[in-house]
Design goal:
HAD_sf; about 15% strand; about 40% helix; globular; alpha/beta; single chain; eight-stranded mixed beta sheet; 14 helices
Length: about 425
């Protein structure tokens, strides 16, 4: 079998040309020698931060013994075949040229094999003789009904993000029906905006009438986007005005959340904990009210996370907890994206700023790999304004499964159906953050 080996060290990839096996060794001796050779070469990649073939002689390599053997013998054998010839033929000066020609190689099988948690080896060649990669639906599934559109593309995206590491990753998530359940106790769960009861029935009715007028305009496909954006801003500002005029208090928010039918998906706490441990920021985008979302987090999760920031409309209260105004520009359904980071105000003082990101907006935008979570195809626009390198999009298809599954599968990389838990995303995020 002829194979091509690639040694990847951090962001450098070194392509080693193919070679055939030697035939004058016994099979056992050959396997042991090949396994030893690849360990030696990986040791030098780690030790020297380079592969200087002129300096690394055969004799020198044979003196080296390291305990960490490859975890996958077939891959070790395939890579060793290439290493045997390349040590005598290639110099360090020629390697960057070879790398520039063959990187990226298009037909990699993206399975990772770790050496001292520093170097990874992939092998591409005769696919019939190489163990196939893990099924992508197994990477993202955890007992849920899941669809993966393009498995090969998803494999590549996962590998690219893992190579860059958690320092380049951010998570962008919608709130309602994405982090929260669509169904709660057999009934449609409340949204963060819909749960609010002002404590003044007259103004609750007025806000409902605004909804009945503007919502059909929101979903009307014949209205140009720039006109619709003006209508949405008009709707949001009128609603905010009614909240102020009707005397909304923070106490009413607490009571509304306590009496609401809203709950987080199973696994959300574990997802936040994993991302917090990996120092991956989570941006929760919402066209609703940040103060309500924070209260939901407080009452339902009973804790805060230092890596979570809420990008939403934020209120200003007086000393008596009466609503006075709103901070910043209005965030509505058509500008709920990374442009809104600069519009978002600091976290509410009542949370003691514990939810604030350590990263400022500019540093968050430097994280060019994105894991995006949403429940509508329109949520894909949340990454607008970010010049991302790689994005994995995850959609939650909660209702109308049969009529929407094709469009969701075409739009998202991964789709969870029937109001699934968050455990599949936890598994995927753990895979992305592993080194």
């Amino acid at each position: 079998m002829i194979t091509t080996a690639v040694i990847a060290h951090h962001h450098r990839t070194i392509v080693l040309p193919p070679n055939r096996k030697s035939s004058h060794h016994s099979k056992i001796e050959e396997e042991e020698e090949e396994e030893e050779w690849i360990c030696m070469v990986v040791f030098h990649v780690i030790k020297r931060e380079r592969v200087d073939v002129a300096a690394v002689t055969t004799t020198e390599l044979r003196r080296i013994r390291i305990r960490n053997r490859p975890r996958h013998p077939n891959i070790a054998h395939a890579v060793a075949n290439s290493v045997l010839s390349v040590l005598a033929l290639m110099s360090y000066a020629f390697l960057p040229i070879w790398t520039g020609i063959f990187k990226p190689l298009p037909r990699f099988i993206f399975s990772h094999f770790k050496f001292r948690n520093t170097c990874r080896v992939w092998c591409s060649g005769d696919r019939k003789n190489i163990n196939r990669p893990e099924n992508m639906e197994q990477v993202v599934a955890d007992g849920a009904e899941v669809m993966v559109g393009d498995t090969e593309l998803l494999q590549k995206k996962i590998s690219y993000i893992r190579l860059d590491g958690p320092a380049k990753l951010q998570v962008i998530a919608d709130f309602d029906a994405t982090l929260t359940k669509y169904w709660v106790d057999g009934q449609r769960g409340h949204s963060s905006h819909g749960l609010l009861q002002q404590g003044n029935p007259e103004y609750d009715v007025k806000r409902q009438k605004l909804y009945e007028y503007y919502h059909p305009l929101e979903i009307d496909p014949t209205i140009p986007i720039y006109e619709k954006a003006k209508l949405m801003e008009e709707w949001w500002e009128k609603t905010h005005g009614l909240l102020i005029e009707g005397g909304l208090t923070y106490g009413a928010i607490k009571t509304s959340v306590a009496n609401s039918r809203i709950a987080f998906r199973d696994g959300v706490i574990e997802l936040f904990e994993l991302l917090e441990k990996s120092n991956v920021p989570v941006l929760i985008f919402s066209a609703g009210l940040a103060d309500i979302i924070e209260e939901v987090l407080r009452q339902k999760l009973h804790r805060s996370f230092k890596n979570v920031k809420i990008v939403s409309n934020r209120m200003v209260f007086d000393q008596n907890d009466h609503l006075l105004s709103f901070k910043g520009k209005t965030i509505h359904v058509l500008n709920k994206n990374e442009h809104a980071i600069d519009m978002a105000a600091p976290v509410h003082d009542q949370l003691g700023d514990v939810n604030g990101l350590a990263d400022d907006p500019s540093s968050v935008k430097m994280r060019t790999n994105v894991l995006l979570l949403g429940d509508h195809i329109g949520d894909l626009g949340m990454s607008d304004g970010l010049n991302y390198k790689t994005r994995i999009s995850v959609g939650f298809l909660n209702d109308n499964i049969e009529t929407s599954r094709d469009s969701y599968q075409k739009s998202f990389d991964v789709v969870y159906m029937n109001d699934a838990s968050m455990w599949g995303v936890v598994k995927l995020a753990s895979h992305l953050c592993s080194m």
